[in-house]
Design brief:
Helices cover 39% and strands 28% of the residues. The protein has 336 residues and is an alpha+beta fold. Helix 5 (178-193) packs across helix 6. 47% of the residues are buried.
Length: 336
């Protein structure tokens, strides 16, 4: 039975959403394969569990980087397997696919996404800008003649968009988001403690004690890694204060991008945003105190969307139920 699905093809996570059944799949954008045979061994959560634990001939990697496809072959296989996984559980064949992509990616990058999805079995592939999908998924009435601002903080990119009358008035995209936070934590542990920690540990630190604003009660946790001097396993204590300082550069860049976007926004729309506030979506919206930090810097009320992780996917689902708006917003429709 023909079926429409929306895909949030994120740098860190991929979410597949059905306009009929809701979220069908949510998994890390990870692939593990054998370098010798090129055989795919695992995808999603299974591949994520292999990070840092594989023998030399097995590679666990993310085919997406900064929101776009970095390895076309692996990404194509990952998308294909995700769609197959959905098809197996639903008995669907050749779905129409709507994919959220970062604002401002090149035509070559758009083509790569379209080809990957089409060769994975989609009967038709459409693209939608992630800030638009995120706004729709967050429940922002973008059809109205009122300005709205959405800040979508993902794994690879942060996008700040001003929307009105079903269109993007202004949008800025920077490649400073969750991944950059993890890299900063890894660099800090190496420099401050001579401790080498992996990507998964860095992400766990960020989730457990990361914050953008001083906490009511500061936290401390023990982290494990490899001592760069002795080469032996080592455990150190790390505080939420120092992690907040480590994340400061990324947070400052996000706030500066919000400021720059507001500076070029027409005054009528600026007044609307001042009244309705800024909406945060994406996994980065879950960082403790980020809404309060942005408010103190901009003096504009900040709302965290309900279920920010899945806003883009839910937005694609809502768009698939509104063919008229979908036709107006999608950039490209090919391979019908």
């Amino acid at each position: 039975m023909p079926q429409d699905i929306g895909i949030d093809l994120g740098t860190k996570n991929t979410v597949v959403f059905s306009n009929r059944d809701g979220i069908l799949l949510s998994a890390p954008s990870m692939v593990a394969f054998d370098e010798k045979t090129k055989e795919i061994l695992a995808i999603g959560q299974d591949a994520y569990e292999m990070i840092g634990r594989t023998p030399s001939h097995i590679v666990a990697m993310r085919p997406m980087k900064d929101g776009v496809i970095a390895d076309f072959t692996v990404a194509q296989k990952m998308i294909q397997l995700f769609i197959q996984k959905v098809n197996e559980s639903t008995q669907w064949r050749r779905p129409k696919v709507l994919i959220g992509v970062p604002w401002g990616i090149t035509d070559v990058e758009r083509r790569a996404v379209i080809e990957a999805a089409t060769q994975s079995g989609a009967r038709e592939t459409l693209l939608i800008d992630e800030p638009v999908a995120a706004a729709i998924g967050a429940g922002i009435p973008i059809k109205e003649p009122k300005g709205a601002m959405v800040v979508d903080i993902g794994g690879g990119t942060t996008e700040v968009g001003v929307l009105s009358l079903s269109g993007v008035v202004h949008c800025r995209s920077i490649r400073m988001a969750g991944d950059k936070c993890d890299e900063s934590i890894i660099a800090h542990c190496r420099k401050q403690y001579n401790l080498l920690v992996g990507e998964r540990m860095a992400e766990q630190i960020k989730m457990d004690i990361g914050s953008a604003y001083p906490l009511y009660q500061e936290k401390k946790i023990n982290i494990k890694g490899r001592d760069l001097v002795s080469g032996l396993p080592k455990t150190v204590s790390i505080t939420s204060e120092e992690i907040r300082e480590v994340l400061g550069e990324v947070i400052s860049m996000i706030i500066e991008t919000i400021r720059l976007t507001l500076e070029i926004t027409p005054p009528e729309l600026s007044a609307d945003i001042a009244k309705s506030g800024i909406t945060l979506t994406g996994g980065g919206a879950l960082l403790s105190g980020l809404d309060r930090r942005i408010y103190e810097e901009t003096h504009i009320v900040v709302h965290r969307a309900d279920d920010p992780l899945n806003c883009v996917a839910r937005g694609t689902g809502k768009l698939l139920e509104d063919p008229e708006l979908l036709k107006a917003l999608t950039q490209r429709s090919v391979y019908k």
